[in-house]
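Section: Multi-chain targets

For targets with more than one molecule, the full set of components is provided together so that the structure can be written out for the assembly as a whole rather than chain by chain. Components appear in the order listed by the source. The example entry contains two components.
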Amino acid sequence: MRHRLEKLGAEVARAQDEALTDDSRRVSVRRRLSEDRAPWQPPLRSHAWRPAIAFAVVTAAALGLLIAWPSTPEPIAYRVNDGPESSQVDQAITAAESRPTPVRFTDGSSIRLTPGAGARVTELTLGGATVELEHGEIMVYVRHRKATRWSVRAGPFLVRVTGTRFRVAWNPTERSFELEVFEGEVEVSGPDAPTRSVRAGDEVHVAPGPQKVPEPVVPVPAPPSIDTAPDSATPARRPARERAPATRRAPPAPLELNLPPKHPAPPSQGSVEPEPVETTPEQTEPAPKVVDSESPPDPREPAGEPTWSALFARGEYAEALSRLGAEEIERAIWQADSRELIELGAAARRADDRRAGYIHTVIRSRFAGTDTAADAAFMLGRMEFHAGRHLASVTWFETYLRERPNGRFAREAAGRLVEAYQQVGDEARARAAAERYLARYPTGPHAALARSVLE
Amino acid sequence: MNGRMSVSDSMSALDRESLGRLAVEERAADDAALVESLRSGDRDAPAALFDAYGKYVERLLVRVLGSDPDIEDLLHDVFAEAFANIAQLRDPARLKGWLTRMTVFVARAAIRRRRRHRWLVFLPAEELPPQQAASTPPEAQDLLERVFAVLRGLRPNHRVAFSLRYIEGLTLPEAAEASGVSLATFKRWLRASDRAFLVRAKRTDHGLYEELLETPRWRAT
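Its structure, encoded as tokens over all components, is:
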């Protein structure tokens, strides 16, 4: 089959090559690059120029002072589509449906409205501007200066900037807001939410619905090093599978009710439903109904249903996952010993069972400080990684490496860390992780990747 | 006769190998000079970089995204990013690999953005009528539309893996490096993309699925 896919790919490539003979696109991009090259003009590196530059700067500053004194300094101005310079505020700028529209500011900053987007410059100051995004998406590049004061408004959201590159999208109809930071750091605030920092590689999404603010990271038991996780910062968009463990981790009281006898629990009132924290309709995983271990069996359960301990004793973990009801599984998760729970977690991972993450989280909680708990961190990282939630996986791999720097998964975790940082586009951390990896495992399976990151 | 042929053949092979090595070394030297001139602020260097790699980057974007209306913007973005980050390139002789990774990253980010925007009421850009060169025969155009309609349903990493391996024809290590992942991860993506492509083709374009499975059109000769 792979050979046929190769044949198909080759046919597609031949068909595409026909279209690639047209060079109009390249001509246009070449022209655009030569026009807007200034913001990324590389700095001069030759040290011999430094005295000359310093002299020129001092002279220019003195001249500037002489000319400007005692008149008041002017706020910055801007050009739309390389048109005439303007200092007007509150004038609507709308990008054509077919092309993006660049707006360049005299402080060296620029924004680019994607096709169809609408914005207006609502304030121009000495240190920057305030841009109001009315609808659509803008790419923003703010040149960092000492007194830079830039901000972007999008509906009720405000992004404050000192020098960075980022993207903002706002859909007023849906009231959805998106922020993606490529370089530097910004602060974002929204209705009923405290101001929070968003760093390079992070994203904030606020989708339509009851959530109106960029919520902070969902807290998880052990991951200490990530304060803002792009994947975690999108509560409205995260799949139910990802949110479910957080829901379970949040209400400790009901879970404590179900500890085995060796962990004394407060007296139970019978069946307890966990608090519906962040629960959404699409969260289809059966709710972790927790039952006091002393309570009588649930009459709804079929009489012949085997117990978890019987199935575990026979090593039938996959069978247990498929046959047992939610309550019995919940009981098993909180009463089985560490070896059994590891087996259950492995069976859940193999079956792509959505409870796998929950099981490993419980392992970390119940057997905290042990090798088993550390291994569970690695497994959680691997699951997040395979699910494409790379930033979340970073948290777990780092947790594992901190807890077991020489553990049995240390090499794999260190390599996955390089990959995960690479995937989220955090080049600085990817390089640091690659350097650490090569220092310890110069011939390891991720060595080639680590070297390519360091190129 | 056979002996002479064999010597001649082996000499030709040696010549070809030497020539190939020379070409690689020459390109590496050119790239290093190009990077140096970019870093030193040479005003003509950005255009030279674009002239050297513009077509290659455009081709790679088209391989991954198909005939997409945003290719021009993305091509611009790749080079803008390259100019902004050229100081971070440690080995100037490996400029092409660095640009390749950057291109794949930009293409994948575009796919992810589209997937995030799918719920918007606006018509997604990817579903706009494809822009084809006038010279593209209707049959080829039909093939492109059908294949990319299936590919759009794949997860971004799987779609990238499929495009790099099967359409651009990179080797597995090259494709893994271009994707910025280990060989093992890339192989896993590719396996998943094979499965997903077939499942999706079977569900959404049974004609393509059947042709792929049964007709001699793409069968090995």
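Chain B is about 75% helix and 0% strand.
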